[in-house]
Amino acid sequence: MCTLIALHRVIPDTPLLVASNRDEYYARPAEPPTRVEAKSPEGPAFVAPHDLEAGGTWMGLNKVGVFVGLTNRRTEHREAGRRSRGLLVADALGRPSARAVAKEMRTGLAGRYNPFHLFYADGRDAFLTVLREDGVETRELPPGIHVVGNRDAADPASRKLTRLQAQVGALDLDAPLAVTLESLRTLLSGHPDPTEPLENPCVHTPAYGTRSSSLIAVGSRPWGYWHAEGAPCQSKYENVSGLLDDLR
Fold first, then answer.
1. Is domain 3-247 annotated with CATH 3.60.60.10?
2. pLDDT at 107 (0 to 100)
3. CA angle (66, 72, 73) in 5-degree steps
4. DSSP label at residue 6
């Protein structure tokens, strides 16, 4: 996943709302979201799409409301042979809370995985773990709007993150949830930068681009999950919320 927008405890009755696009090579095989059973008797089952090349997933939501989403971090030193970052996401989805995930993200990452950003939240707490080439940082996030991509949010080279942060901040978050979801879908479908395709939320290049898009709402009302298998500017979002109903 290369664009993740998280609204953490800013919408009444929906303490967690996530909008995300996955950018990947077109040749890399993947499958839409399905239910995944827990690896252990005490672990929660989860719903997630699937990477068929290296295993695991780039995002998912488990039975107790823990969301985990990963974006690869741009680096010039990607090492072959390291464990798939998608397997780390699947491991995290087996935990009972975001705080439990954070506890496990403190050590043991450097040298085992290529760099990444890992966002995880459960409607109460939210965290971001960043693995850089020179170390790992895990920080708790305050209530608010958080945009995660392939670079640090404060990196001036990433116009996309700065633009999305401002655009989401300008939305009327007191509007009905359906209106907010449609606004986020529109942002995910956008191509505001005609000269730099990778700086658009919806990416199109000959070999690489936005492969899928998702909207997930977790709160006191029935949980919602809408998934587009393809670029959101071209593909219809399907309501797959029934997967979450079955999960719970």
1. yes
2. 78
3. 120
4. E
